[in-house]
Design brief:
Layout (H helix, E strand, L loop, with lengths): L2 E8 L2 E8 L12 E4 L35 E2 L5 E3 L5 E10 L6 E8 L2 E7 L1 E7 L2 E6 L6 E11 L6 E6 L3 E3 L2 E6 L9 E3 H8 L3 H7 L4 E3 L36 H11 L2 E6 L5 H14 L7 E4 L9 H12 L6 H24 L6 E5 L5 H9 L9 E4 L2 E2 L3 H4 L5 H9 L7 H17 L4 E3 L3 E2 L14 H8 L2 H16 L5 E3 L26 H12 L10
Parallel strand pairs: 3-16, 3-24, 16-17, 17-18, 18-19, 19-20, 20-22, 21-23
Antiparallel strand pairs: 1-2, 4-5, 6-11, 7-10, 7-12, 8-11, 9-10, 13-14, 13-15
Helix pairs in contact: 3-4, 4-6, 5-6, 6-7, 7-10, 10-12, 12-13
Length: about 550
């Protein structure tokens, strides 16, 4: 197996990363499906990184209940001065017991001081720069764990904390977690010694390896994030990449690295307020680091037609400021279209043309006017390579609140009296495909799948939430996924980005194809359906394997 060596700066060290050659993963280029990532939070059950601290709650976000109001942080978010208080964070929350291995974890750090652990994390042994903790799920069958810096030398304060599991991988298979060196004698890499090179949870790599493309919208922290200048971007040296909507997100370098290792086309979404320099620097970084066989998929922000998001209001305001329309909503659609083309042109300048790019304009599945406005505005379609929508089947929002048994729940998705039944949704897709055809663009899905969620509930076990979870765990849901994906293909759709990676089912939705990253396939009927579709329906559109 040939290797490609790359350097990436993670924390304080420059490391040399060995990447599996593209030929080792060529089969995913036949896949008709992409996957959306999740937000980086301490309760994300897709667990993308080996180091659990990568998704921890930032010390700043933990004020005042874990981090004292007087604690001073450095530029990377580490507590530089405690000022007589404590700096704390939560690094696991509501995490299913099976999502990560329980056992003896190693905590590495730079500096001098003392760390205290809480919740399901118990200190076993403390030494300078290294603690050993026991980490086992609690009686509730979940992991919840905190970390508090209670002493720190201001001249050499505690920083660069890493929380590493007890196992590793065999060097010839980065997609499989193994317990010890006995599994592959002479070929074993323990996470504790090799976390800087390995970076990604092998269970996560194994999950993602079947997808043709990875949409980084959630992982890059797009929604409601006003980030505008290049110096505001997430950095490799940041204390953590987790946090609230305004600051979380994996650095662009990490997104590129994941795409490289998976041989998957990266689907990047650009922050809604990003200035031209930000866009140019982004494109230059991708050109420098991305494998030459991979095509960056470029999309401006996420669902700017959806005014529940900050980005939806931003494009409306900008559209009105540019006097693109007298109607505020249409002004927003036009600005989205116009700004998308401006972004595409910057990427084209960096890449020396559009041949290696996939430039995506996105619309609203149920609204043909949005599609027409976006594609036609100043002939934007001529600067694009695809038009994308987000088809979800779920019945309708009011009827979801009324279901009282499993049969009623499934009837929502199959009875055409409900606006968003599968058949009715395929009708919306057919109309959007006709518009895409009119402008000579293929139709993609930037998101999609089942959409059973009652947005009116206030806690996870309030009805009808338990029924919605039950439906998502049922074999019948797998059958509906197959029916829907076959319909998507039949109606002429191309690349379909499922929403989403494994995540815990809660009142906010049952979006994950699994409930946690290494859930057995026999329990995950949605994911079974996705894999079966990938294997039985290799990508069918012209140029899909290029």
């Amino acid at each position: 197996m040939s290797l490609l060596l790359k350097h990436i700066r993670l924390g304080v060290a420059t490391i040399c990363v060995a990447l599996v050659a593209p030929l080792a993963l060529a089969s995913n280029q036949n896949s008709p499906l992409a996957s959306n990532t999740n937000e980086l939070t301490e309760d994300d059950s897709s667990v993308p990184f080996i180091d659990l601290f990568r998704a921890a709650l930032p010390f700043e976000d933990a004020r005042p209940w874990l981090t004292g109001a007087n604690v001073q942080l450095d530029a990377n978010g580490w507590p530089a001065r405690l000022n007589g208080q404590i700096a704390g964070t939560r690094f696991l929350s509501n995490m299913p017991a099976q999502a990560i291995p329980g056992g003896r974890y190693t905590v590495l750090y730079e500096g001098q001081g003392k760390i205290q652990y809480g919740g399901d994390a118990k200190l076993v042994q403390a030494a300078q720069g290294q603690d050993i903790i026991d980490l086992y799920a609690g009686d509730d069958n979940k992991f919840d764990a905190t970390l508090r810096i209670i002493e720190s030398n201001p001249n050499n304060y505690i920083r660069d904390i890493r929380i590493l599991p007890p196992d590793g991988v065999c060097t010839n298979n980065p997609f499989k977690r193994v317990p010890n060196a006995g599994t592959c004698p002479g070929n074993y890499q323990a996470f504790v010694q090799n976390y800087q090179q390995q970076i990604f949870n092998p269970d996560y790599l194994d999950y993602m390896k079947d997808f043709k493309s990875i949409r980084f919208m959630n992982m890059s922290g797009i929604n409601n994030n006003p980030q505008s200048s290049w110096n505001q971007r997430q950095k490799l040296t940041d204390a953590t990449w987790g946090g609230n909507q305004t600051n979380r997100g994996a650095p662009i370098e990490i997104q590129i690295e994941l795409a490289n290792r998976l041989n998957a086309h990266p689907w990047f979404t650009i922050h809604h307020a990003a200035d031209n320099n930000y866009v140019m620097q982004f494109a230059q970084l991708v050109k420098q680091r991305l494998r030459p066989n991979l095509k960056p998929h470029i999309e401006y922000s996420n669902e700017t037609w959806n005014f529940i998001f900050l980005q939806g209001n931003h494009v409306r305001d900008m559209g009105m400021a540019r006097r693109l329309d007298t109607n505020k909503n249409r002004a927003g659609y036009r600005y989205y279209s116009e700004r998308s083309v401006e972004i595409f042109r910057i990427w084209e300048q960096v890449f020396g043309g559009s041949q290696r790019l996939v430039r995506i304009l996105s619309g609203w599945t149920i609204n043909e006017e949005v599609a027409e406005t976006i594609l036609s505005h100043k002939d934007a379609y001529k600067s694009a390579d695809a038009f994308a929508i987000a088809p979800y089947f779920f019945g309708d929002h009011q009827s979801i609140q009324l279901v009282r048994n499993l049969d009623e729940t499934f009837r929502l998705m199959t009875d055409d009296q409900y606006r968003y039944s599968i058949n009715n949704l395929l009708g919306f897709i057919r109309k959007q495909k006709a518009i895409a055809d009119k402008y000579g663009l293929p139709l993609m899905a930037y998101e999609g799948g089942q959409g059973l969620v009652d947005f009116k509930t206030t806690h996870d076990m309030q009805m009808p939430n338990p029924l919605l979870y039950q439906a998502n765990r049922h074999p019948r849901m797998g059958a509906l996924y197959t029916q829907f994906l076959e319909g998507w293909k039949r109606e002429g759709g191309t690349l379909f980005a499922h929403y989403s990676s494994p995540r815990t089912y809660r009142r906010y939705g049952s979006w994950g194809s699994k409930e946690y990253i290494n859930q057995p396939l026999g329990q995950a009927y949605k994911h079974q359906a996705l894999l079966n579709f990938i294997r039985s329906r290799p990508c069918w559109w012209a140029g899909c394997q290029q």
